[in-house]
Amino acid sequence: MTAKNEPQYDVLWPLSRKAVKKTAAAPRVPDLNGKTIVELWDVIFRGETIYPLVREYIKKRFPGVKFVPYTEIGNFHGAREREVTATIPDKIRHFKADAAIVGIGA
Amino acid sequence: MLRAAAIVEKMGVPTASIIGSGFLKQAEVILKGIGVPLAIGVYPGAPMVDSEAELMRKVEESLAPGLLKGITGDAPVEGDTSVEPQAGAVVFSGSYDDVQEYFYRNLWTDGLPVTPPTRERVDAFLAFTERKADEVLRVIPQEGREASILSIAVNGVMAGCRPEYMPVLIAIVDALCDPKYRVEDSGSTPGWEPVVIVNGPIVKELDFNYGQGVMRVGRQANTSIGRFVRMYLRNICGFRIPPGAGDKGSIGQTFLVAMAEDEDSAAAVGWPTYAEDRGFKKGENIVTVHSVVAITSPMYSGGDDAKTHVQQWTDIIGGSFTYWAHTGFKTGLWSPLIIAGPSIAGVIAKEWSKDQVRQYMYDHMKVTAAKATHYAQMTSTPTFNFESLVEQGILPPSYTESKDPQRLVNVLIKPEMVEILVAGDPGRNQSRAYMSNHVQGPPTSRKVELPKNWAQLVSASKK
Questions:
Q1: Which ipTM did the prediction report?
Q2: What stretches in chain B show pLDDT beneath 50?
Q3: I need a surface site. Which of B16, B138, B289, B450 has the fewest CB within 10 A?
């Protein structure tokens, strides 16, 4: 494409630095018996049907697992998003969560 | 949603997140910006259109096993090991065409040719601010990139702006960076687009169009600044359509040229300007960034009495925006921004203040509760109901005064949600309205900070 004597341009990178502090994922929990899974739901995309099915699936394999239903955390999307999101750490500690299921992005 | 999962994961509690298969590329981008790898269970396809049996099958066969593995299996690991250039580095040298091709292949353009961002051109922009090039306004959540002054200048050059627009560009990005604006939701499926509204003496100084043809491409200030916003959302905020990712607008809109108010006409009819409505003083240079998810047809209205015009607005805006108002009901916020044609504003303002216009529209724009509920359930929220929203204090009690599904409820939650600005063709009786996307991109304003030697710089740039 370049014709002779055409001006040359030294161009700058148009993006900017990523300032992300990286953290490793949490250790997993191979045996869920006796453990607590906290549910978080953003109240969209049929979670009212999906979460009970997921609960049932996991309980079949780990009968001793306990679920804290999504109603305990509240809707972390929409009108009260920031307020509810700010309460998540305290609630996770309060319910002594061993794991969490978070949804729904669809 | 993944940001909530990241909060939990960073506390040392393993998570597994539910993601629809169509959102995996979006998730990939977000994961790079939140700094912790997350496990994902995939729901194949779109849950909103699956039968009950199909949904059960997909949960059993795909989603639930994925979630279980995410919690009990191997911990997810960081996948992004890419090394990027330094901010301000020269990344390519070549001819005009070579630059276009290189930028296009790297997904750094909007598909149109860009002005090559050379050091010299970028420095010309930086001369129009007293802020340092490496100053960071905010780290933007989506990709975790810094909204730096330098990044504003580079993308301003690329979008075809003039150097003297730089103070406006900085104010725009500062508004985008306001957490209340929620720039991280710019890639949501409704495909909303920001519009920039400009008020103050700078409208004339920078030659914005606010008259006939406003909102059409063709005037450099309006067009290039509108293009800049989309370019910035793409390059710094991380919202790219395929073959990129991050922008999940299902059927998106193109960029909107900047909107400017006809302040002379507003003054002539005796109405405060849009910026004054938002609490700023007359004569201040203000930009407001505002999401637009829908636009009405042109609203023609005739007659020499206020009510006839406002009734027409109410009918047309109600007809156009009532469907999507359910998103406002869920979040407690939405707004119609009306561009009132100068001739129409003149008729209305003889009898009514802007507040009287707002009150009329609030009182007369109605929808049945059943219809609004149906709209919400079809979109994403099968559990939508007014009772729950009133109970949570998101909507006022008037929405549940009766249990009759056929009762009429207000489409506008509060009269003050109606925004009015005067612009457009003085020789025609036309207005138009723009709908915000609930809490995503609510009107957010910033004062434009001009450098001390502004007049001298502008004068020199015009030679």
A1: 0.92
A2: none
A3: B138
